[in-house]
C-alpha cells in the first residue's frame, strides 16, 4: 500500500513560500522541490534527514554480444573500485555526506568479500537475452523482494531520502529492451551508445535488442514478465527499492536512464509510486527523455551525464538541501515589512 501524498502540507508549503521575502515563485524549482518534499513528509517545513545512495550491481549475459564498450569483467573490477572509494559516485557521496550502500544482486565471477558490500546474489548474472529469457519469474520476484528488504533495512536504520544507482555492464541495452516493451517505440529511437559505442556497434546493439524481443516476446502488460524475460537483476532490485520506499513514504531520487526504467516498472506495478520520485538529471541516453516524459517528471539538471552509478542523483542532494533551507529559514514579507504594490 502506498499512501497518497499529503496535499494539505504541500498547500501550506506553497503558502509559506509565497509569504517569504521574495517575488512569488522567484526561486523556481527550489520551490517545487520544497513543496514536493512537504507533501511526502506531511510537514510544510520538511527536513531532509539522513541521505543514502543505494547501488545495485549485476551482470548481464547479453554483454558478451558486443553491445558495450567495456568487457563484462569490468563489473567485478568496478565493485572493488567502489569499495576503495574510487568511483565517481564515491567521491560525490563522500562530498555530500551520503551513506553508500552497495549490493551484489547478481554479479558473476568470484564474489568479493568486504564489510561494506552486501553479497545477495540471486543468480550469477542473467542469461543472454538474445537467446533465452534473462531469468525465471521466480528470480525476478526475488530481485524485487530483495530491493524491498534492503530499503526497509535502511529506513529502519534512519534513512529519510534515497538516491538510487546501478552497476551492470550491458544494462543500457537491457534498459532499452525494457523501454521498447513499455513504450512500443522503435528500437532505433531508444537505443544509445551507453559507455561509448561507435556507429557500427550501435547498430549491432539495436539488432541484439530486436532479437531479444523476438526470442522472448514479453507479455507487454505484465512488468514482472518484461523484467524476467529481457530485464536485469539490478533493475529488478531497484524497482523493489522504489516500491518499498514509496510504501514507507520515503522520497526517491532517480539517477539516469537505467534507474528511471526501474521507476517506470515500479509505477506500472503501483502508479502511486510516481509522487515519491524526483528526476535528478537528463542522461545522454536517448531513451531517458521518453521515460521521464511518460512519468511526467522534469529533470533538475541537463549536465551531459552518461555514467549511472547514482552520480546524478547524489549530485542534486545539495539542491534538495538548499530547498529545505529556504523554506525553513527565510524571513517573511511581514517580518521585513515589505508589501506588494497592490
Ligand atoms: C568503468 C565503468 C564505470 C561505470 N560506472 C557506471 N557505469 C555504467 O555503464 C554500464 C552501462 O553501460 P553499457 O550498457 O554501455 O555497458 C553500467 O555498468 C553503468 O553503471 C560504468 C561502466 C564502466 C565500464
Ligand atoms: O543514464 C544512465 O543510466 C547510464 C548511461 C550510460 C551508462 N550507464 C548508465
UniProtKB/TrEMBL annotation:
The active site is at residue 309. Coiled coil: none annotated. Pathway: Nucleoside biosynthesis; alpha-ribazole biosynthesis; alpha-ribazole from 5,6-dimethylbenzimidazole: step 1/2. GO terms for molecular function: nicotinate-nucleotide-dimethylbenzimidazole phosphoribosyltransferase activity. InterPro entries: Nict_dMeBzImd_PRibTrfase (IPR003200), Nict_dMeBzImd_PRibTrfase_bact (IPR017846), Nict_dMeBzImd_PRibTrfase_N (IPR023195), Nict_dMeBzImd_PRibTrfase_sf (IPR036087). SUPFAM superfamilies: Nicotinate mononucleotide:5,6-dimethylbenzimidazole phosphoribosyltransferase (CobT) (SSF52733). One of its GO terms (biological process) is cobalamin biosynthetic process. It is an enzyme of class 2 (transferase). This is Nicotinate-nucleotide--dimethylbenzimidazole phosphoribosyltransferase. The lineage of its organism: Bacteria, Bacillati, Bacillota, Clostridia, Eubacteriales. The gene is cobT.
